[in-house]
Every structure is written in C-alpha cells, then in structure tokens.
TrEMBL record:
Identification of the protein by name: GTP cyclohydrolase FolE2
Gene (name only): folE2
Reaction catalysed by this enzyme: GTP + H2O = 7,8-dihydroneopterin 3'-triphosphate + formate + H(+)
Organism: Pseudomonas abyssi
EC annotation from Swiss-Prot or TrEMBL: 3.5.4.16
Pathway(s): Cofactor biosynthesis; 7,8-dihydroneopterin triphosphate biosynthesis; 7,8-dihydroneopterin triphosphate from GTP: step 1/1
Length: 301
C-alpha cells in the first residue's frame, strides 16, 4: 500500500504534439449556495470545468485538482463574482506545470422563489427559474455571464383584433336598428363576448447579462423581477378564481407579438448597463411551430 502509484500524465509524453483549446470535465453534481435579498438557499447545480492545455508535450491535465477546487464552491459561502474569479485563478495556478493560462466554469441550476397570487391575500406558491452561469478567466481577464429563463403568457394582438371584429359583427347583426339600454348590452355581452377569443400561449424569455467582478452577488431576484415587470404577464403559481380573472385582465391589457416581448425586455430600465442579450419564444397555440425573436445592444434603444 506504500508503493508509489504511476502517473502517466507526468511520465509520458503526448504521442501527438499538439496544443488543446480546452480540457476538463462536464456534468459534475454540486450543491451551491445562493443569497438573494438576504435569503439563502442551497440548490443542486451541474458544473462544467475546463482549462487550456497549450503545451503540446503534456499528455494530460490534473482532473482531480479541478474537481477539488470546484468542490470548494459548495462549502458554505454563497456564489458571487469575486469568489468565482478566485476559484478560476486557483485552477490556472494549479496547472502551471501544464502551461495553462485560462480556465472556465459553467453552472446550471434552478433558482427557486416564492411568488404571491395576484389578488388573494396570503396565497403564494413556489416558482423556479432555470439559470446558467458562465465564468471565464483568460490570461488574467475575468468575464461572467448569467442567463435566466422566465416564463410568461402572451396573447396575440392580431388574433385579438380579429376576435373583436367577430363579436362586433354579431352584435350589429343581432340588434340592427334597435335602441338598447346598458343593461341589455351587458346581458348580451355576458353570453356572447366570447363568441371569438384570441389565442394565447405559454412563452419564455432567455436573458443573458454580464456581471461585474465587484458585484456583491448574482442579483437573480432583481433580474427576474425586472423581466417579469417588463413583460407584465408572468405565469402564476397558486391561484383562485379572482386571481385567474386578474390574470385574464393582464393578458387582455398586455397584447404582444414576439417582437413586442423582445423589445419590452431590451428597453427595461433595470437592465441598462448589463449588456442584455434577449431571446424570446412564443410556443404557439395556433401553429405547430414557434415564433421567436432576438435582441441585443444597449437596453436604452
């Protein structure tokens, strides 16, 4: 048991003397701690971690060193840009004998938060938001990008206009030449206002932002809040009939094409300075295909 174990990554030379862009591991299970508005939660993350291998004669990197350094991210302190940079620097330093000068790390997890009902007091439910963090340290330059996916409802403006026209035509045909009281109109609408209804669908927005190294945290909750406020119709958790009615009203007052949704997010005041990259997808109920849009550039546009 005291025998020296062989390490061919050190004692053997690569049979093909070529540098490699990245080498590492993917799909590592890891608990990480989030701190959002003073509330901590531990979530299950999947991690990918790599370093570059510029020296062509080196047969292999030190996978176990990367694993142990990555494992330290699951020990107590919440994720923050500065902490991610420090771990990446340790990964580069631990591979000095390989000539490594860059490291990168990706984390995927679901951010879970409690959302209140629209109307009913005391009613709330849990909602999760898929998150992907991509951190890199390349020759001393640190970059951290965060992507969050937010679900919302979208009602088509064109479909709404067509539905309103059909209701209008039915009303005129039914009461041509008649003078009606407000009560009679209300009675007809109670039964026939849904003669035609616009199509709506569950939709999703993926928003990528760049975080500064000096930031104290990830700011996930404030980012999600900003996106949902811009869209106006985030999907709900626990609801009663009053909440469902309020949600129907929100949809009716926030008709949007996929283009509208992308522009709303891109121009959200709270995203200014974060270099947002926006992708939205409306999972169509009219078609068997989806409607999509991308937006990038200054959020003030």
């Amino acid at each position: 048991m005291n025998a020296v174990l062989p390490d061919v990554s050190r004692t053997e030379v690569s049979s093909r003397l070529l540098p490699l862009d990245w080498v590492g591991m993917q799909g590592i299970d890891l608990p990480v701690v989030l701190d959002e508005s003073g509330e901590r939660q531990t979530v299950h993350a999947r991690a990918d971690v790599h370093v570059d291998l510029p020296q062509p004669q080196v047969k292999g990197i030190h996978m176990s060193r990367l694993y142990r350094l990555l494992d330290s991210l699951g020990e107590g302190a919440p994720l923050a840009p500065g902490r991610l940079r420090a771990v990446l620097q340790e990964m580069v330093d631990s591979h000095a004998d390989c000539g490594s000068q860059s490291a990168r790390l990706a984390l995927q997890f679901d951010f879970l938060t409690r959302r209140p009902a629209l109307v009913t007091e005391g009613l709330a439910g849990w909602k999760s938001y898929p998150v992907r963090l991509q951190a890199s340290l390349s020759r001393g330059v640190f970059q951290l990008n965060l992507r969050v996916t937010v679900g919302y409802s979208s009602t088509c403006p064109c479909s709404a206009a067509l539905a309103r026209q059909l209701v209008q035509q039915a009303f005129l045909q039914t009461f041509a030449g008649q003078t009606l009281s407000a009560a009679q109109v209300a009675s007809w609408l109670e039964t026939h206002a849904t003669l035609a209804t616009p199509h709506s669908q569950r939709s999703e927005a993926e928003v990528d932002v760049t975080l500064e190294e000096a930031a104290s945290g990830l700011g996930l909750l404030s980012l999600v809040d900003e996106i949902e406020q811009a869209l106006g119709t985030p999907v709900q958790t626990a609801v009663k009939r009053a909440d469902e009615q309020a949600f129907a009203a929100l949809n009716g007052q926030n008709l949007m094409f996929v283009e509208d949704a992308a522009r709303r997010i891109q121009s959200a005041p709270g995203l200014a300075g974060l270099q947002p990259q926006v992708f939205v997808r409306h999972i169509e109920s009219l078609h068997p295909h989806d409607a999509v849009a991308w937006a990038s550039g200054p959020s003030s546009l």
